[in-house]
Amino acid sequence: MKPHQEGLDFDGLKNVLSVAVRGAPYDVTLQSLLEEVRRLVGGQAWAANYLLDDTGGILTLAASSGLPPDFAAALALVPVGPREAACGRAVHTRQVVLVDDVLTEPLLEPYRPLAAVHGVRACWSFPLHSPGGRVLGTLAVYLPDAGAPGAPLAGEIAYFADLVALLTERHLREEENDARHAQAQRELAALAVESERERRLYETVLSNTPDLVYVFDLEHRFTYANAVLLQMWGMTREEALGKNCLELGYPDWHAEMHGREIEQVKATKAPIRGDVPFNGTFGRRIYDYIFVPIFGPDGEVEAVAGTTRDVTERQRFEEELRDSEQRFRTITNAMPQMVWTALPDGTIDYHNEQFYEFVGLRPGVAEGTTWAEVLLHPDDQADAHAAWMRSVASGEPYERTFRLRHHAGEYRWILARGLALRNETGEIVKWLGTDTDIHENKLAEEALQEANHRKDEFLAMLAHELRNPLAPISAAAQVLRIAPGQPDKVRQYSEVITRQVNHMTTLVNDLLDVSRVTRGMVQLEMEAVDIKAVVSQAAEQVHPLVEAGGHTLTVQLGAARVSVLGDRARLIQVTANLLANAAKYTPAGGRILLSVEPVDGKVRIAVQDNGSGIDAELLPHVFDLFVQGKRTPDRAQGGLGLGLALVKNIVGMHGGQVAVHSAGSGQGSTFTVELPLIARTAPAPVGQSPAITATPAPAARQRLRIMLVDDNVDAAQTLAALLEGAGHLVRTIHDPRAALAVAVTEAPEVFILDIGMPDIDGHALARQLRAQPALCDAVYVALTGYGQASDRASSREAGFDHHLVKPVDAGQLLALLDERAHA
Question: What is the model's pTM?
Answer without folding.
Answer: 0.36
